[in-house]
Specification:
The complex is a heterodimer of chains A (115) and B (415). Chain A has helices at 20-39, 68-71, 86-92; strands at residues 2-10, 43-48, 53-57, 62-66, 74-83, 104-109. Chain A has 115 residues and is an alpha+beta fold. Chain B has 415 residues and is an all-alpha fold. Chain B is built from 19 helices and no strands. Chain B has helices spanning 9-25, 30-47, 56-79, 85-89, 100-114, 121-131, 137-143, 148-164, 176-197, 203-222, 229-243, 268-281, 289-302, 311-324, 328-340, 344-352, 363-376, 380-393, 397-414. In chain B, helix 10 (203-222) packs antiparallel against helix 11, helix 13 (289-302) runs antiparallel to helix 14 (311-324) and helix 14 packs antiparallel against helix 15 (328-340). The radius of gyration of chain B is 24 Å and the shape is elongated. Classes of the chains: A alpha+beta (115), B mainly alpha (415).
Chain lengths: 115, 415
Amino acid sequence: MKEFMMIFVGADYADLGLSPEELQNRMGKWFAWGQKMEEAGILRGGEALTPNMRRIVGENRTVTDLTSAEVKEIVGGYYTVAAKDFDAVQDIAQDFPDYDLGGTVEIREIMVFDR
Amino acid sequence: MKTKLIDHLFRHHSGKMVSVLTRIFGLTHLEIIEDAVQDTFIKASISWRKQQPEHPEAWLTQAAKNRVLDILRKISAEKKHIPSLKCGIEAITIKDLFLDSEIEDAQLRMIFTACHPKLHAKDRIAFALKTVSGFNTKEIASALLTKEDTIKKRLSRARKAIQNNKLQFKIPQGKALPERLESVMEVLYLIFNEGFHSNQKKQLVRKELCGEAMRLSQLLLKKEDTRTSENYALFALFCFHSARLDSKINTDNKILDLKTQDRSLWHFPLVELGNTMMTKAVKSNSFSCYHYEAAIAAEHIRASSFESTNWDKILHWYQCLNNLQPMPTHILTMAVVCIQNNDLETAKKYLNDLNPESFTQRAYLYYGTLADYYTAANQLKKAIINIDLALETVTNSQEKEYLQKKKEALLKATS
């Protein structure tokens, strides 16, 4: 088994003007997805990220504070899962709830070093 | 673990939170409050993905309390002054405002604000759905079959009217109450009808509007000052109509009339609730339009088949309704009832009293009924002429299809 990270990229919920009802429905889908992975015993970890962002760039270490509205697409969170290969993770990622909002799932394999 | 929250929990809590916070900070700060509440739900929706709290409602109420300080900070930063909270909360402390009874009180204040006569009639519905019911503009637009931009305009016009007229966040007292209550019931009635009569294909949206109207009407019945016989009658009417909601549409999403509905699909617990409410409603001596409309709806529900409908009684209630509130549509319906009852003479008398122009865009209803009359009177050529007139004025595609079918049947009968 290898470990993979699913990274969620898209607009911030706050910038989409979702209604309480939509938020509740969406949350239900996320919850169900998380449960499903948990029950399958493949979930290794995951976090959601707030939209506040401080960026430090270049040799001068230039600092900028950004809001999600300025960036449009931000990393909203990630899950790490255990799976055989990319195809298996692709299957898991079918249940990601926010494709209809223009969301993206980026699958990356976690590198393992030889001891 | 519990995986499912109560349906519409967020939506209903959004209305509660906006109302309570408005009671604390006043209508002037409504926009800041709405943003703060929205933000709370975004946070909840993300942090609850992993684990839902054991008591979601208590969690949300606590979150609303936590927002008080945030909002206070925001208002003082933006407006450069600290709002005087004293006038808003009078003698009770902020904590007490989050008690269930006080939340209900705040919601009633919001309903009365949304239905204030200073607001344009159309703006009231949109504003009520937004602030009391927690719909967003997209949902309101889809429920009312209107463009989102139009709804945005209505909402901003409502907000302006509230600010310009310096409306107070209060339940009216004394003499002002009955009149204001009437305006509230009218808005609830309209919200319900939007759901019940809309030709919206999405059944869900229709049910939600009906559900909201019922929920708000129940809220009025909980409080002694707003518990009136009219309101009982209105709630009874909602119950009788809602009982039929599932049978109004067939599996192809086609609208079914009373004649073709599967009566076994009617929801009888709602009928019983309606009957209980009606018993309370008729304890008063004076009857309102809602009383008569509920009586008509009850009469339809009482019939086990379309054929066994007691048309005489229905006609009687329509006559009462029309005496109280004369309207061309009532007279037209009386004509329809007479046609059902094979009393063509009286039907004709009612039809002669009417003028198609008074129905404006709905003139097709008048011509359609006239066509039915001539069909019943076996004057098929005249019936076809009127069906054609109806087809000329109809805009809704489902109604059009319905009329077209009638016309084909008539053409067959005459050929």
